[in-house]
Structure to design on (353 residues):
């Protein structure tokens, strides 16, 4: 994709995606890892939330993990939720990545009434909505492997 | 360490009270606690008022009509831990020798439905729909069931027991027994956890 097209995409949070944001399939999540205790966090962290040291390295997170727990959202979330309108019930869950981090994520491409803890899921980066400036705002979900 | 005692308590019924202002709700609990302790408001030397969604200086607005006695009235907010933090602050104040008698009050008045997510979540979480509080407890429950073999029925029994007890508590929001069958048939998901365990307005008061 050319540069002009690339500039039309932004992350829903600016520190969690590898760039470029084209093509989506090649985008990964970024995290921070504590060099002292090994704890991993989503996005850029200057201090470790576990041991409070400031020796953090930026890492790229694995794009596959296991479902640790889940629930089904059957009412439209409050505030400026950008999911489908009219609302479609969806599942969310904690995906445990090989790094040890458990990532809260919407779950997609699945039967919400037949989810199973321990199953394998893969990262899906896609467009959540288009903002007022015409940018495609990218967010993440996980889909079954 | 000084020995510290709760010498009086007051409470306002839990529930939805329409246009009744939080100031009146809180004041009723405070007056009840003062009466219970047999202490005059003028003898209270400090007050800590916990709340989350009410406006600035809620404590002063609630308590000033009892008399502007010149004491410090401090609002405390720590989400679900607000009440405990307010109580702790009063204990610390008494321990320090700053004062001997304190009033600790907790009040909340909330609208129906989900709480305002901007109070608790970042913008990106709200945009993605990750800002529904009950789902966090639902996910905890689901994981507990997976790890420990906890059953739907066991979780249902907690709600059953609590609702059964509520009939004997004139201050409870829902004074209504539920049948275990209803609970048993409830899918343990966010919606149902919310229905069964939600509470929306509350107030209580302690005098130290």
């Amino acid at each position: 994709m050319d540069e002009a097209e690339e500039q039309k995409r932004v992350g829903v949070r600016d520190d969690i995606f590898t760039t470029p944001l084209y093509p989506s399939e090649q985008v990964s999540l970024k995290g921070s890892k504590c060099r002292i205790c090994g704890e991993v966090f989503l996005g850029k962290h200057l201090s470790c939330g576990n041991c409070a040291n400031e020796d953090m390295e930026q890492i790229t997170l694995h794009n596959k993990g296991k479902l640790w727990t889940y629930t089904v959202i059957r009412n439209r979330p409050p505030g400026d939720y950008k999911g489908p309108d009219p609302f479609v019930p969806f599942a969310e869950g904690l995906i445990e990545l090989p790094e040890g981090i458990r990532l809260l994520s919407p779950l997609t491409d699945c039967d919400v009434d037949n989810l199973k803890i321990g199953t394998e899921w893969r990262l899906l980066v896609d467009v959540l909505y288009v903002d007022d400036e015409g940018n495609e705002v990218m967010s993440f979900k996980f889909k079954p492997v | 360490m000084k020995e510290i005692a709760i010498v009086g308590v007051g409470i306002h019924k839990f529930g939805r009270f329409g246009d009744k202002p939080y100031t009146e709700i809180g004041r009723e609990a405070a007056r009840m606690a003062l009466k219970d302790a047999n202490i005059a408001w003028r003898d209270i030397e400090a007050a800590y008022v916990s709340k989350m969604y009410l406006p600035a200086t809620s404590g002063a607005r609630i308590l000033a009509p009892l008399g502007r006695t010149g004491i410090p009235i401090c609002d405390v907010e720590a989400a679900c831990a607000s009440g405990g933090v307010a109580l702790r602050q009063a204990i610390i104040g008494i321990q320090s020798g700053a004062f001997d008698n304190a009033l600790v009050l907790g009040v909340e008045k909330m609208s129906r439905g989900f709480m305002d997510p901007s109070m608790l979540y970042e913008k990106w979480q709200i945009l993605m729909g990750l800002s529904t509080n009950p789902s966090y407890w639902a996910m905890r429950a689901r994981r507990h069931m997976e790890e420990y073999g906890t059953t739907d029925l066991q979780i249902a029994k907690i709600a059953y027991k609590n609702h059964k007890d509520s009939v004997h508590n004139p201050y409870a929001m829902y004074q209504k027994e539920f049948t275990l069958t209803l609970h048993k048939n409830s899918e343990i998901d966010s919606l149902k956890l919310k229905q069964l365990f939600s509470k929306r307005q509350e107030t209580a008061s302690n005098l130290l």
About this structure: DSSP finds one helix and nine strands in chain A. Chain A touches chain B through 29 residues (CB under 8 Å). The CA atoms of residues 67 and 116 of chain A lie 7 Å apart. The longest helix of chain A spans residues 3-6.
